[in-house]
TrEMBL record:
Native source organism of the sequence: Actinacidiphila reveromycinica
SUPFAM superfamilies in UniProt: Glyoxalase/Bleomycin resistance protein/Dihydroxybiphenyl dioxygenase
Every VOC domain range: 1-123
Endpoints of the signal sequence: none
Pfam family, one: Glyoxalase
Protein name (database record): VOC domain-containing protein
Stretches assigned to coiled coil: none
InterPro entries (alphabetical): Glyas_Bleomycin-R_OHBP_Dase, Glyas_Fos-R_dOase_dom, VOC_core
Length: 138
């Protein structure tokens, strides 16, 4: 089994897809007004409208600011990403400044327009770079 995607449910697919396009530099593949995907080389962030939820099971998901999941993106230079996003992201939506974590990643935490946590990180220690470079397990 391979983990390939995470889906975020939102009231406004266009707004959220636009945000993630700007953050990642990846153009969203918009299937229709209710569904878009940000596809990177290693995973996909799917963005679904609340109108798609009943297709799975009515009431099974709802948009909300998430307090338990962080959507993470590996970036070449987290400090440069922070500078680049400074004029785009509301200052109140930056949760922290780029910070080197004990596990060796330099990380920037922010919130997307729906309040979901997003972490942009760059491995800065040998051990962290080695973890990031490991090929996926089968």
């Amino acid at each position: 089994m391979d983990f390939v995607s995470i889906r975020v449910i939102t009231e406004d697919v266009a707004r959220l897809a636009g945000f993630y396009e700007r953050v990642t530099g990846v153009r969203a593949d918009r299937a229709n007004e209710d569904f878009a995907e940000i596809r990177t080389a290693t995973a996909t962030l799917a963005i679904g409208s609340t109108r798609t939820v009943p297709l799975f099971a009515p009431g099974s998901a709802r948009p909300a600011d998430n307090r338990s999941v962080i959507v993470e993106f590996l970036v070449d230079d987290v400090d440069a990403a922070h500078r680049d996003l400074a004029g785009f992201v509301d200052p109140a939506d930056f949760v922290n400044e780029p910070t080197t974590m004990p596990w060796g990643n330099r990380a920037l935490l922010l919130r997307d327009p729906d309040g979901n946590l997003v972490n942009l990180f760059t491995p800065v220690t040998e051990a962290a770079r080695a973890r990031a470079a490991r090929p996926p397990r089968a």
